Structure formats: C-alpha cells, structure tokens
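Hello support,

Our group uses your service weekly, and this is the first time we've seen a run hang past the timeout. The protein is S1 motif domain-containing protein. I'm not sure whether the cause is the sequence or the server load. Input pasted verbatim:
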Amino acid sequence: PNKTIHQIAKGLVGSILSVKVIQAEEESRKLIFSEKEAVWTKFSTQINVGDVFEGKVGSVEDYGAFVHLRFPDGLYHLTGLVHVSEVSWDLVQDVRDILTEGDDVRVKVVNIDRGKSRLTLSIKQLEEDPLLETLDKVIPQDGSADSDSLTTSNSSTIEPLPGLDAIFKELLQEDGINDVRISRQGFEKRVVSQDLQLWLSNAPPSDNMFTLLARAGRQVQEIQLATSLDQEGIKKALQRVLE
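Update from on-call engineer: The timeout came from a worker crash unrelated to the input. Re-ran successfully.
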C-alpha cells in the first residue's frame, strides 16, 4: 500500500540526509529543508543541453511523461519531462499508447531551467526528422544500388502511385498551389508499407518549388510542388487533402 507523507517522514527519523535550506523563519525559529533541491544542486551541474541519458519512465500524464535519468553511478538522481510533442515525430494522441511506467528509454536534454530546477527532455530528437528525407536518401546511390534504382523523368512518363491522381487534383484546388508533378521515382530493396504514404521533405525550396515524397510498396516517387505557400501552409493543405 502507498504510504502517507507522515509515515514516510517517521521512517526517516535517525537517517542522514543531504538537504538544502530553502527557507528560514527567525521569528518562529523554523527551518525548511528540501532533499530534492539538494540533489538538484549536486547533480544538475553534471548535465548540459544536448546530453543523452538512459532513463526509466516514471508517471505518464496527458501532457507527457516523466523520465528518471540514470547517472554513471547507476542511480536515478534527477527527473525530467518529455512533453507529448517530444515523444515522436508522428502525431501522438495519447502518450500512454507509446510509453508505459517502467519503460527503459533514451532521452536527450533539450532545456535546463536552473531557476525552477526543471529538465526538459526529448525522445524524438534522437531520431532524424523524417521530413529531412529526400529520394536520394531513401534510395542511396552507392555501389550496392541497381543502376536503374532512380529514374529521372517527368509526370507524363511516370505512372502515379495508386491514389496520387486524386490527391493531385485536390491539391490543385488549394489556394496558392499552382502545379504538382512527379519528377523522379525509385525502387527500394524492401517493402516498408503497401499503403500509400505521403510526406513533405524539409529540403530547402528552390524557385517556390517544394518536394513531396510518396511511397507504396517498394516504389517511391518524388513530387515537385509549385506554390506561393510557405512550409506551414503546405502542411495545412496536405492535412486538409488527406483527411
């Protein structure tokens, strides 16, 4: 059964603890101590933004998960929050679908608020943003690749993946989108998914041309989008079309 604060305090009688004085009241002759602040003072100096830790998931809330960080001595001295937006690059509706109390995870320290003794952590930033992918990265051109694994052509000679034609028509009805066409296609060595997947590349635009990637089975197609929209505007247009 869970113990009350009073029961925990009684169990600490006679123990030697490292604590920090956080308040002193001279009139009432009262001192208030914090073990948590003492631990923070000692171990927060050993952490920097960008550090990667092995951790264990503590409580999981609607807004994120608290992760206990394991230090080189093997003990979990500090705890930080992985906000729901930092759990995965995919949209997370419920953190509990991905993380459970007791899970072992790797996290990256993304912010240290020393004034409030808070750590902000990220799981997704240990993985590369899928929006950074390009066709050349999905199908690398190394010595093991087939000579025809990438095909440069235009939309008139490449048959769009099933379902793309309808998506193209809806995209062209969006304000600010002027043209959509397939520029290249390639074939992966393995099947990732038979379902059509479509995402926006984070490759820098050129002459108001953005790049989309579409995948189904082994086939991947690179799509050029001529638009006056910025990246956020394109994302919103894609969300409307794919709903």
